[in-house]
């Protein structure tokens, strides 16, 4: 293999990637970040104050009204722990496909860590408690509260914390399989919690396959 052939192959691969990334990926998105924000605000206004479980049911049922079977029905059993970027919390997968995921994420007791560098744009709608964010160069914490939306652009990095109880609805749009190594690294190299690893793999794969069968990638 000479350098000429190598550069042709590289050029073709990069062009295909650029085409998929720019033209194909965004057409696979079904979730409208503004619709999600409205659902979160409406649900916060009607769910019984302080009952986060009731809020999860309310949001999930409104999501199913709009997005149908693309949203898994909520239940309290299918949560799983999540360790990533040195932060620990738990999540419930409402939707996962190649280009999007939609989850409840949070912790009852607080956590802190690295956001990860993701090939996806991330929308974080605070449902309960506070998320604190450290942006480079800004010595003050940016504080997000219930009803607020925190957007982390693709490729950007922050330090974040949930100083105590905090839960959020999280939407990611981009290359979801590309986010998985970050999602598994702390498990494989730190916690060695293979029960959680198996659970996460099972629920993620199940959601992705069911989405693909419905023609949603
Ligand atoms: C909170 O809401 C859930 C779901 O509607 C309900 O089962 C539970 O009893 C409520 N908890 C309290 C303390 O009201």
From TrEMBL:
Pathway info: Steroid metabolism; ergosterol biosynthesis
Localization per Swiss-Prot or TrEMBL: Endoplasmic reticulum membrane
Signal sequence, renumbered to the chain: none
A GO biological-process term: ergosterol biosynthetic process
EC number(s) per entry: 5.-.-.-
UniProt cross-references to Pfam families, sorted A to Z: ERG2_Sigma1R
SUPFAM superfamilies: RmlC-like cupins (SSF51182)
GO CC annotation terms, alphabetical: endoplasmic reticulum membrane
Enzyme class: isomerase
First-listed, main subcellular location of the protein, grouped into a coarse class: endoplasmic reticulum
Lineage: superkingdom: Eukaryota
Keywords: Endoplasmic reticulum, Membrane, Receptor, Transmembrane, Transmembrane helix
Keyword Endoplasmic reticulum found: yes
Protein family (similarity comment): Belongs to the ERG2 family.
The protein's name in its UniProt record: C-8 sterol isomerase
Organism for this UniProt entry: Lipomyces tetrasporus
């Amino acid at each position: 293999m000479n350098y000429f052939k190598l550069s042709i192959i590289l050029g073709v691969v990069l062009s295909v990637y650029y085409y998929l990334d720019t033209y194909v990926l965004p057409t696979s998105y079904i979730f409208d970040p503004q619709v999600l924000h409205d659902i979160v605000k409406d649900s916060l206004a009607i769910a019984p104050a302080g009952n986060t479980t009731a809020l999860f049911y309310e949001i999930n049922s409104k999501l199913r009204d709009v997005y149908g079977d693309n949203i898994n029905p909520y239940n309290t059993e299918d949560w799983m722990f999540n360790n990533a970027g040195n932060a620990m919390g738990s999540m419930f997968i409402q939707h996962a496909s190649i280009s999007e995921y939609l989850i409840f994420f949070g912790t009852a007791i607080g956590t802190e860590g690295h956001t990860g560098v993701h090939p996806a744009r991330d929308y974080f709608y605070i449902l309960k408690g506070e998320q604190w964010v450290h942006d480079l160069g800004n010595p003050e914490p940016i504080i997000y509260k219930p009803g607020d939306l925190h957007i982390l652009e693709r490729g950007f990095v922050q330090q974040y914390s949930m100083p105590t109880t905090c839960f959020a609805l999280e939407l990611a749009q981009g290359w979801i399989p590309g986010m998985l190594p970050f999602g598994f690294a702390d498990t494989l190299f730190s916690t060695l919690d293979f029960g959680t690893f198996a659970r996460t793999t099972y629920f993620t794969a199940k959601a992705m396959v069911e989405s693909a069968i419905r023609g949603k990638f």
